[in-house]
Amino acid sequence: MWLDIRLSQNTLILLGSRNESAGSVLHGVVHLNLKRETCIDFVSLKLKGKAETFWPSAFVANPLANYERQNLVLYTWDLLPAKDGPFTLPPGEHQYPFEFVFNGFLPESVQIKNGQVKYKLVAALGRGLLKPNLICERELKVCRFAQPSVFNTTYPIVDTWENMLDYTIFISHQVISLFDSLSVFLTFLPKNPEVRVKGITFELMENLTLRQTKSGKSQVDTRWYTLNSKLEETRFSYSRSYAVTFPPTEKIHFDCSTELIEISHKLQARVTFSAGKTVNAIVIKVPLSIMAASLETMSENPPRYDQIPLPASCHSELLPVHFSDPLPPPYH
């Protein structure tokens, strides 16, 4: 006897931000395979979603307050209701389809050092008072992609530094995936003939915020990632387009916004220039949203359907089924 949960997609995709997404429909089937005629009490399935944080003991004086959980979704299917049982099933394979309309406002899956957003499906088969229930558990990965119009948004900043240097910066996308290249357009016009642009560097700022809803406290962890590229050549005026790429994806997380966990990013361009014997620097920060994949990436590598391998039989303990596509990396 084995129990299995199969999904039509390896990953549930939400299109658009939490405020604009229409949601998505989760489709799947609970499979039950019996070698002989069997009497069972019930078959049920639960969808559970939660956000949870684990606060460092140095930040929270009371150890009992270190952990906080927010339940996001809880839904139960009575595939064979207990009130109508017991049921005598013949040998062979039995299938129980299910579907669930996933609210677009729900957050995507996140895995960080001190918290996570996680969804899972738990199927249960009741075998009577003298036998333990048969349980099978499967993790559900939820990703969020941007709308096509958002990817084509250009974000301009025009300003003047100390009445000495006019500058303009454009980025090709306000929302981008870690696998795409970001085009950055920079234009400088010195107002003083002594001003010389000496170099430009790009960095990504990642802010991870943990919140406690009861106390109202929050903790912000900021990380910096060096991007390409650097300009060493000195010029009086300067205009150029950069193709900016991200460091290895295991270091960077996707944007996320919940009551307990928030992850946000900014692109920083640092421009150093000389004015006579003095060297100065301008720091320009542009908000940037990072999602799991762009629509271009998704069209080239669409989610796989009905390709979930059949796991070994589930016995009387929880047997998690791991996805081939990993969750966002742990935050170290």
From TrEMBL:
Cellular compartments per GO CC: cytosol; plasma membrane
InterPro entries: Arrestin-like_C (IPR014752), Arrestin-like_N (IPR011021), Arrestin_C-like (IPR011022), Arrestin_domain-protein (IPR050357), Ig_E-set (IPR014756)
One function term, GO molecular function aspect: protein-macromolecule adaptor activity
Signal peptide positions on this chain: none
A biological process from GO: ubiquitin-dependent endocytosis
SMART domains with a match to the protein in the record: Arrestin_C (SM01017)
Lineage: superkingdom: Eukaryota
Pfam families: Arrestin_N
SUPFAM superfamilies to which the protein is assigned, alphabetical: E set domains
Domain (Arrestin C-terminal-like): residue spans on this chain: 161-295
PANTHER family: ARRESTIN DOMAIN CONTAINING PROTEIN (PTHR11188), FI21816P1 (PTHR11188:SF17)
Stated name of the protein: Arrestin C-terminal-like domain-containing protein
The species this protein was found in: Basidiobolus meristosporus CBS 931.73
